[in-house]
Amino acid sequence: MTSSGGLHLKTFILIFFMILFGPLGNVSLSKGMKTIGAISLHQPADLLHVGVQILQSPFIWLGILLQLMFFVCYLLVLSWADYSFVQPAGSIAYAVVALQAHFILQEPISPLRWAGVCVICLGVLIVGHTSPRTTEQI
Amino acid sequence: MAWESVLLVLIVFAGTSGELCVSRAMKTIGEVHDFRPSSLLRVMVRAVQVPWMWLGVALMAVAFFSLLGALSMENVSFVVPVTALSYAAGALGGQVFLGERVSRRRWLGVLLVCIGVTLVFLGRK
Fold first, then answer.
1. Strands (DSSP E) along chain A, which ranges?
2. Whole-angstrom Cα distance, residue A2 to residue B99?
3. CB within 8 Å: A116 and B109
4. What pTM does this model have?
5. Which residues of chain A have pLDDT under 70?
6. Which residues have CB under 8 Å from B33's CB, separation 6+?
7. Closest in A1, A83, A98 to B98, CB measured
8. CA A95 distance to own-chain centroid
9. Which residue from A35, A37, A33, A25 is spatially nearest to A97, judged by alpha carbons?
10. Please, which residues have CB within 8 angstroms of residue A100's CB and are 6 or more apart in sequence?
11. N or C: which end of chain B has fewer CB within 10 A?
12. B119·A78 Cβ contact <8 A
């Protein structure tokens, strides 16, 4: 059993890694797929051809690795924290994605989307003030 | 429209119940204290031996392919905001299926997340 402070800390650290690896993995996968371009499937052999192309892309492999790291962090945090805590807290990833898009990709973000991000942050802040664990081991 | 509705239900319910099953599998393993790579590997080996894990991953795969299917459809604009419902479904599922105590404060936070996610999708053009 971990003390309440320690529990909060390790929960937040793992959720931090989740929101770091998850969006980065998505960006990497989408970059990998975009370098391959539009897929046209006319005959079964095309599927094999596309499959080989996908597996040759370093961005796809990086994306898979990042997604795997995301999933391991997710599993670890769920070994002690409530699902009803981790799931809403993970939605802070929407804010991370919007900030990435604004500062790194210089994409325009609509005011409505910023408003959504603010509401999500408020919701996560409120969830974050509840105890990460309300059950014992099954 | 009928097809889209089936996909929406699958995205929200298969996705949420998949994550709940995975969560249940990890709860049977119990709190991880040791974060050295070798012991993390042992935790993962134990995790893949829990049947709930396989059911959960299978359901999450169904949700993933339903989302791909929905995204390939013409009228996608209403599809993705509905996935915000997953957060409400998840809190309810955590309460019923995992016995978590979802306080009024946590419900309030979840509700705000649902609204926020909907706004984010509506604001994406």
1. none
2. 20
3. no
4. 0.88
5. 1-3, 137-138
6. A2
7. A83
8. 11
9. A25
10. A23, A27
11. N
12. no
